[in-house]
Amino acid sequence: MGLKGLVFDKxxxxxxxxxxxxxxxxxxxxxxxxxxxxxxxxxxxxSHYVAExxxxxxxxxxxxxxxxxxxPAWADILGRAPDLAFRTEVDALLxxxxxxxxxxxxxxxxxxxxxxxxxxxLGVATNDSEASARAQAAALGIAGHCPFVAGYDSGWGxxxxxxxxxxxxxxxGLAPREVALVGDSLHDLHAARAAGVVAIAVLSxxxxxxxxxxxxxxxxxxxxxxxxxxxxxxxx
Length: 236
Known about the structure:
The structure is a single chain. The protein is an alpha/beta fold and 236 residues long. The chain has 10 helices and 8 strands. It has helices at 17-33, 37-46, 67-78, 84-100, 108-117, 130-140, 163-172, 186-195, 212-215, 229-235; strands spanning 5-8, 49-50, 55-56, 121-125, 148-150, 179-183, 198-202, 221-223. The strands form 2 sheets. A 6-stranded parallel beta sheet has the order 5-4-1-6-7-8, sandwiched between helices. The longest helix has 17 residues, at 17-33.
């Protein structure tokens, strides 16, 4: 089986989730709490956030979910309406602070350049916002190799729904069996299955190797990180 297209999850796959989003969410929650310690503590509690370590517990709805997954709870704590304006504000803050602490896994720019040279179609499908994903893709140096970048707000739904993956397949003109989604969470693998593409799990998410038992039954292949992809492609 030859793979001609790869669509990548971003957080936990291309960038280190905790090192990128731990500091970013800390800054955003403090900004929104506006000095109210009680509200800040409640935001962190509902987000399953460990303030002392600037990281999330694996149970956090923020680890694999989109802004829609946590915005209602945040809005309630802040006395805000859980509407589009609030989500847009949160996404803008996250996009800005996410760039400040952006931490790649391996060397995505070099990897994407080599994959593109092999003729592999590349894309990104993330539950982050599209604007944030495009900004981070540019900062990582991969934007020139992946014209397809989709976020939860791009119109194709959020993972584990298959819309973003199906849209990538349609954009490339490839058959689903020629495409793989590379991701670290069950949301990614379920989206791959629903779209009929190959599911490749990477063990570079927040739980690292401890996630193997959870993801292995839902993946066609499991690798340690994106750095192992070329060897996998050569073996297929």
